[in-house]
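Q: I have 501 residues here and want to know how they pack in 3D. Can you give me a structure?
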Amino acid sequence: MTREVEVAILGAGVCGIGAGITLKRDGIDDFVIFERAGELGGTWHHNTYPGCAVDIPSHLYSYSFAMNPDWRRTFAEQPELKRYVADTAERFGIPAHVRLRTEVLDARWDERAQRWAIETSDGPYAARFFIVAAGPLHEPEIPDVPGMTSFRGEMFHSSRWRHDVDLTGRRVAVIGNGASALQFVPAIQPLVERLTVFQRTPSWVVPKIDWRTTRLERWAMRHIPGLMRFARWLEWAPIDLLITTLRHPRLARLAHGVARWNVRRAIRDPELRRKVTPRYVIGCKRTGISNSYYPALAQPNVELVAAAVEEIRPGSVISADGAEHAVDAIIFGTGFKVLTDHPVAERIRGRTGATLAEYWNGSPRAYNGTVITGFPNMFMLFGPNIGTASGFVMAEAQLQYIAGALGAVRAAGLASIDVREDAQRAFVGEMDRAFAGSVFTAGGCTSYYLDRTGRVALAWPWTMAGLRRRLRTFDLAAFEARQPSEASPVGIAAPSGSARF
């Protein structure tokens, strides 16, 4: 039998749990969260590699309504983050709504029923509203290297870490040098006999201002009124300032001195320094933060190969310069499927029957980063042009917008809303103008911020504070709506609706 719910949520990570909490606060208890994993937590459940930690300060990388006085580090590590997300979900009664080990196989907008028909591994559901909270950065991206199937050793992606594989005394190849590699390379370097890191393009890496918090700090956070919020503001303000500054290539170059100093203080070999120093402007690609990555590369048992991988053989890796490197294990630090290849886009069909992937055609677009023309009553968290420094800040801003939308629809007795094409087009144009000449497009590199057409599709162009202001109010005038008895859309000219998170 098809189970009817008011709201269906895809994903039980930071965004999905936040969505559930928002619904409960607004008095909506008729919702279900589908999670294909066996536990809550999303990225903090899947990523368990050595050294895994957040790269945003902990007080900012958390829910504003569930601040944590007991962070053990300035930048929390994976086990603590996973516990925090799970504990917050438990505190707000979310687990009762979660269907673990349940995968969404297909989701289609039923125009006649004005509902989302959702096929899952647990059977069919029908939902009035559909919130996609799967996130675009969780499905591993593994390059198709010739000869991969011939390799005789262990081979895995960092996000699917093989804890049953003992790397002690082994010759290990690391392919990729993204944010995850910056963390696990220093963690495994002391264990292995030989570590060969294959770097196609170097990353800018700046110092990490991190420390283990003391009992006195944690006591103060718990007992001094307003201190946690002040700490959150102290973390928020400089990041917003950096976002504003680093957007402009000329200003971004001012940060090169700090990044180069981070190289010089750890690496004495001039040739290795040259290999790890990028030629593009900082901020063009994701900037790493680490105090241990460069020192690890400088160790005698580490070799940095500044070349792509050309081929994998039964016991070795061939780099693009023709050199052969004998290895016993291969770890991919090659990142994730991004928004242009969103893992769920092939499974979601809108009003015309086309999938979201077909509609986007390699160039993701939305209105306010949250709603997409032709996909009524659907909201996407971490959608196009919404990515900002803290995923929690982003999620809360979007959830306030979604709460306003649901409140407006329910108050007006509408069956569905669908953002107008012209409103979406205007938003996309506004984003493109904001990014013109920015470090993303004029910084001298290519990155996952860009879609297949070259436009910036992932990032929000302004500050986190600006994102909150933008999504504070839901404006019905940007949408077409259907009354329950109507067969065709009608324009809406109604007062703006808003909901406070």
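Q: Anything worth noting?
A: The radius of gyration is 23 Å. Confidence is low (pLDDT under 50) at residues 487-501.
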